[in-house]
Amino acid sequence: xxxxxxxxxxxxxxxxxxxxxxxxxxxxxxxxxxxxxxxxxxxxxxxxxxxxxxxxxxxxxxxxxxxxxxxxxxxxxxxxxxxxxxxxxxxxxxxxxxxxxxxxxxxxxxxxxxxxxxxxxxxxxxxxxxxxxxxxxxxxxxxxxxxxxxxxxxxxxxxxxxxxxxxxxxxxxxxxxxxxxxxxxxxxxxxxxxxxxxxxxxxxxxxxxxxxxxxxxxxxxxxxxxxxxxxxxxxxxxxxxxxxxxxxxxxxxxxxxxxxxxxxxxxxxxxxxxxxxxxxxxxxxxxxxxxxxxxxxxxxxxxxxxxxxxxxxxxxxxxxxxxxxxxxxxxxxxxxxxxxxxxxxxxxxxxxxxxxxxxxxxxxxxxxxxxxxxxxxxxxxxxxxxxxxxxxxxxxxxxxxxxxxxxxxxxxxxxxxxxxxxxxxxxxxxxxxxxxxxxxxxxxxxxxxxxxxxxxxxxxxxxxxxxxxxxxxxxxxxxxxxxxxxxxxxxxxxxxxxxxxxxxxxxxxxxxxxxxxxxxxxxxxxxxxxxxxxxxxxxxxxxxxxxxxxxxxxxxxxxxxxxxxxxxxxxxxxxxxxxxxxxxxxxxxxxxxxxxxxxxxxxxxxxxxxxxxxxxxxxxxxxxxxxxxxxxxxxxxxxxxxxxxxxxxxxxxxxxxxxxxxxxxx
Length: 666
Prior knowledge:
single chain, 666 residues, alpha+beta, Chitinase A, domain 3, four-stranded antiparallel beta sheet
């Protein structure tokens, strides 16, 4: 009973405890069940106008554009710069597609399936399709039949795995360009609609004509701001802040970072040079005397022996005199030479013979028109084509395996034989050893230990004669720092570090990099401190304008004003609203506008301009002798407005509702 009473006495407390436990249970269950939702959110590379771009979709698009790049360029390797360009190309296509689509939906505009079909395989395909070399025939011309044949092929099953892989690649290629055509045509429709809606009318034409025709002669005197000493005016903090507020919209920024970094070059040490030299010395005698030269060379040299024929133009320059010397013969060797951080020696394998330098080939197409390929050197061709091509005579035909089929070539012409030589080259470039690598790396690490903040890093670098390189405006999606190779990790670090912090060692190509984070700019606008200098300059000019105007008080003629200014009177034969420059005074739109507003034979009050304070006196009207041609004026105005639709599309992308998470996936 006592226990029951204690429970009753503390009932409210127990209910609260049980309630909290139940709440924790419910929240825990909710968070667990909702974890997939949060994970999915984190897997979005971005959101554009409400359209989520999942990581898998983004990666698939990157793979697709990479395949297209390989097909278009014929390259199989993708270097860092190309990879960056392809990633940006993928994002920009998403951005253009979703922003245009969002606007198009609002006005009921779309690209229909029938339109897309006509653009891709119609009688007159889009220029994007027509310019793809993959759709050219044997004459090097676009062929609609080639396109249709490819489309029929990609929807069929291949005979084997290799053929299926080829068909998959072709399908990937086609789908990419189909999408590009759709997005581009949507843009073209939008531009066309814009041009029809925004075009000059007769009133615009008349105003433009009058602005150009109606003018007035004028004289003026100007006192430049630089003629007034800075000490004669005062600029307050309030003046600068007022201008900052006025200009603030111009200072909108993307969150960014500024860093400074130093580089430790990964270069060979003296020991590395000595080791390479000793290796060459140990191989020298064997290289000169062995009967199996290819084994010695291909086991130890940076230049493989493949039996190629060198001409006097293609032989390495350091061996030219040796290889083509009078009396050169097989078995002769050079001594060890050193050039461009490379130890090398050469042995003549064959000399005293001649072969053609180049051959002209054409492809034989059964039942079709032959294709002329042009001239080739042996080094330009695969070995299975080069050997029969250079061994044959004019008119000879030969057939080689090409992919899943065969190709027959005919030798159309062949150049005259020139002296050749076969060389075996034993070469070793001096590169940093693992020990050297470790020493340089440890030096960089020790530098960080001794200088663990931004100020210490810069001071120590200056004392040791190490260049400190600044890099500004790194955004979360910046792909690399300046020209540093493989430097994306530095950008990621900069957005995780604190201001003043020094990084760990980054390996960027042939350099170790140590960076310091010098600025963190996460505000929506550039801070006042960053733009203070330019705003102070502007505020000082405003103050100087007020000072000059005060000095001119009471000047009732242009000559009197010019005398006070200590400046000459200048004349302009004609000033009109169509002008942007006022004589030799430069671009002064405010002064020009006020001059026209004065009318004839009038004196202005002092006018604050871009470069100084002006006093203007107008003369008689000076109108151009021409007649209004409405259609001609409208055509000129239309040409000036041609950029507006594209500017609207650019603005549309800038103002789009975009969440860019790419930095989390790069």
